[in-house]
From TrEMBL:
Source superkingdom: Bacteria
Lineage: Bacteria, Pseudomonadati, Pseudomonadota, Betaproteobacteria, Burkholderiales
Signal peptide coordinates: 1-17
Protein name per its UniProtKB record: Uncharacterized protein
Swiss-Prot/TrEMBL keywords: Signal
Species for this entry: Hydrogenophaga bisanensis
Length: 147
């Protein structure tokens, strides 16, 4: 399989926002897919090729507990996509204490997203992170596979 020259990256950032004057905090999540630091919502790849995927997740407060890659085929697609590390078994993790009771957490997860020969059509690729409070952040990109 050939590697494409460009890499798809996913950045998910979350920040905590204080609720109406009290001490309670709720998580607000902002998410974007990026290629070379330019936001993208779709990617095209020829069947038999690979996209290098990178997911970065940031939190302030809770820590990231897991990252999972998944795919959903649209009705016009044939075959599927595959991930070399769908469960993010070897993430780069940077947790640091910000205060006595708060942490800043950064996970960087890399995977190869392959489009096997014979596959074609549109596929929705998701990266989902779960934090220590059980909150999830998800983003997606549309991957179009051409013969």
């Amino acid at each position: 399989m050939r590697y494409l020259k460009h890499a798809m990256a996913l950045s998910l950032a979350s920040a905590l926002a204080a609720c109406g004057g009290g001490g309670d905090e709720n998580e607000t999540v902002a998410a974007t897919f990026q290629t070379n630091v330019v936001n993208v919502s779709s990617q095209t790849v020829k069947a038999g090729n690979i996209i290098n995927g990178v997911a970065e997740f940031k939190t302030f407060g809770p820590t990231i507990e897991s990252v999972v890659w998944s795919v959903m085929a649209t009705t016009d697609s044939v075959g599927s996509l595959a991930f070399s590390d769908a469960e993010c078994e070897s993430p780069e993790i940077n947790n640091r204490d910000v205060s006595a009771d708060k942490k800043s957490s950064l996970w960087r997860c890399q995977t190869e997203i392959s489009a096997p020969k014979g596959s074609k059509g549109n596929f929705r690729v998701f990266a989902t992170a779960t934090d220590s409070n059980g909150n999830t952040a998800k983003d997606e990109i549309l991957v179009t596979v051409t013969p």
